[in-house]
Design goal:
alpha/beta; FAD/NAD(P)-binding domain; Enolase-like, domain 1; 7-stranded mixed β-sheet; 5-stranded parallel β-sheet; about 30% helix; globular
Length: about 450
C-alpha cells in the first residue's frame, strides 16, 4: 500500500494534466488508468485519431479537387485504408508515449488498473489499496445509448468503431448532427461514401450560433452530405448485411427508413462512473449522472474532487484540462480558477467552425444591447489563395462599452484563429483593441481584424 497527497482516477486530458500539475506543485501524485494506455478517450479513440483521419481525408479531397487547378498533375490518388489506419495509430502511439514520458519526468506514479473509491482517502486499484489525502475523479464519458439502437461495432458503430473501419462503406447513415457526427461523416464522405445525417432537431450543431449552423449546413450539403432533419430514430435493424434505420418525421409523424452498410450512432455522451463507488461513498450525482460539485470542483465528500466530462459543462478535453490545473492548484493551497465564459469550441470539418462566448440568441434572451461586426473570407487574400474563401467571422461586442462578448467563425484555420479572441476576452478587450492591432499580411487572421473594424466604422476590404 502506497500513500499519496493526491490520487487521480482517470488518465485522460483532465486526469493526466491534473497529475502533472500536482507533481509540479510538490505533491506526491499517482494517476490511475484502466484502459491500458494514458490519454483517455481523447488521445486513443476521440480527438487525436479523428483529426488524423480528417487530415488524411482532406488531403485526399484536395488531391482530387484542387491539385490540378494549381498545376499539380500527378496520377490519380487512391485510398489504402490499412495504411491510413496505420498512420492514425502512429499518431496515437506518439501522443500516448509522450504522456508516459511526462509522468516519468514529473515523478507521477502510473497505477495501471481500474480504480474504485473504497473509503475516505482510499482508492483500490484492481484490489490493491492506496491511501491519499485527496482524490480527483476524472473518469470522462462514454457513448450515450439510444433506445432501439444497439451498437455491435459491425453494422451499428459508435465513434470508436468509426475510427477503425477497414473499408470505406458505400452508404453510411449518421445518427446525430453534432460535432462527432459531422466530423466522422465528413471523413467518409470525402473518401467516397454516400453519407446521410439524421437529426432529431431542425438544425445541426446544437448550441452554436444560428447563422453558423445554416451556413455550415449549406456547405456540407454542397460537399454531398445529405441531411434528414426533424427526424426521430425509432430503431435500427440489421439483416442480410444491410442496416435499416427506421425513423419518424416530426412534421407529420410519418414513417420512413434508410438503408446503409454502416450506421454511426453519434447522439452524445454520458459521464462514465460505473464501478467507481460513488453510491457507496454517498457522493451526490445529478439526474443525468453527473457528479455534483461546488465552484471549486469539490464534491460533497471532503477531500474528493471531480473534473471534466463527469461534471456539468461542455464535454471538451480543454475544459477538463483547465479544471485539472485548477483543482491541482486548489489542493496545493493556491487560487485555482476556470473562466467558463471563455471556453472555445471547434468543429474540424472543412471549413472549420469555432466559437467562444455568447451567441446572439443568448444576448437577446438576456436583453443585452450588442453590435455585430462581420467579415467574409471572400475578402481575405490568403483564403482565396488556398481555395478557402467560404465562411465568415462574426464578432459580438457590447453596444455601449465595445467589450467583446463572443465570436463565431467558419473558415480556414478557424480552430486556431479563435484564440485571438479568447485572449482578448480574458483581458476584457474591446473590438477596437483588436481593430487597432497590426496583423501580418497576408494571413487568415486579418479576417479577425476586419470583423473587429466592422464593429466600428467598417471593414476595409468589405
Amino acid at each position: 500500500m502506497a500513500e499519496y497527497d493526491v490520487i487521480i482516477i482517470g488518465g485522460g486530458p483532465g486526469g493526466y494534466v491534473c497529475a502533472i500539475r500536482c507533481a509540479q506543485l510538490g505533491l506526491k501524485t499517482a494517476c490511475v488508468e484502466g484502459r491500458g494506455a494514458l490519454g483517455g478517450t481523447c488521445l486513443n479513440v476521440g480527438c487525436i485519431p479523428s483529426k488524423a483521419l480528417l487530415h488524411a481525408s482532406h488531403s485526399y479531397h484536395e488531391a482530387h479537387t484542387n491539385f490540378e487547378k494549381m498545376g499539380l498533375m500527378g496520377g490519380n490518388v487512391s485510398v489504402d485504408m490499412g495504411k491510413m489506419m496505420d498512420y492514425k495509430q502512429s499518431v496515437i502511439d506518439a501522443n500516448v508515449n509522450g504522456i508516459e514520458f511526462l509522468f516519468k519526468k514529473n515523478k507521477v506514479d502510473y497505477l495501471r488498473g481500474w480504480g474504485k473509491i473504497t473509503a475516505k482517502g482510499e482508492v483500490s486499484v484492481d484490489g490493491e489499496v492506496h491511501k491519499a489525502k485527496n482524490i480527483v475523479i476524472a473518469t470522462g464519458s462514454e457513448v450515450a445509448p439510444l433506445k432501439g439502437v444497439e451498437v455491435d461495432q459491425d453494422k451499428v458503430i459508435d465513434s470508436t468503431g468509426a475510427l477503425a473501419l477497414t473499408e470505406v462503406p458505400k452508404r453510411l447513415v449518421v445518427i446525430g448532427a453534432g460535432v462527432i457526427g459531422l466530423e466522422m461523416g465528413s471523413v467518409y464522405a470525402r473518401l467516397g461514401a454516400e453519407v446521410t445525417v439524421v437529426e432529431f432537431l431542425d438544425h445541426i450543431t446544437p448550441g452554436m450560433d444560428a447563422e453558423i449552423q445554416k451556413t455550415l449546413l449549406r456547405s456540407l450539403k454542397k460537399q454531398g452530405i445529405k441531411f434528414v432533419l426533424k427526424a426521430a430514430v425509432q430503431r435500427v435493424e440489421s439483416k442480410d448485411g444491410v442496416a435499416t434505420v427506421h425513423y419518424k418525421l416530426r412534421k407529420d409523424d410519418s414513417d420512413a427508413s434508410l438503408e446503409a452498410e454502416k450506421v454511426l450512432l453519434a447522439t452524445g455522451r454520458k459521464p462514465f462512473t460505473e464501478g467507481l463507488g460513488l453510491e457507496e461513498m454517498g457522493i451526490k450525482t445529478s439526474p443525468r449522472g453527473q457528479v455534483e460539485t461546488d465552484g471549486n470542483r469539490r464534491t460533497n465528500v471532503e477531500g474528493i474532487y471531480a473534473i471534466g466530462d463527469v461534471i456539468t459543462g461542455p464535454m471538451l478535453a480543454h475544459k477538463a484540462e483547465e479544471e485539472g490545473i485548477a483543482v491541482a492548484e486548489s489542493i496545493a493551497g493556491q487560487a485555482g480558477h476556470v473562466n467558463y465564459d471563455v471556453i472555445p469550441g471547434v468543429i474540424y470539418t472543412t471549413p472549420e467552425v469555432a466559437s467562444v462566448g455568447k451567441t446572439e440568441a443568448e444576448l437577446k434572451e438576456q436583453g443585452r444591447a450588442y453590435k455585430v461586426g462581420k467579415f467574409s473570407f471572400m475578402g481575405n487574400g490568403r483564403a482565396k489563395a488556398v481555395f478557402g474563401s467560404e465562411g465568415f467571422v462574426k464578432i459580438l461586442a457590447d453596444k455601449d462599452t465595445d467589450r467583446i462578448l463572443g465570436c463565431h467563425l467558419m473558415g480556414p484555420m478557424a480552430g486556431e484563429l479563435i484564440h485571438e479572441i479568447c485572449v482578448a476576452m480574458e483581458f476584457g478587450a474591446s473590438a477596437e483593441d483588436i481593430a487597432r492591432t497590426c496583423h501580418a499580411h497576408p494571413t487568415f487572421s486579418e479576417a479577425m481584424r476586419e470583423a473587429a473594424l466592422a464593429c466600428g466604422d467598417g471593414a476595409i476590404h468589405a
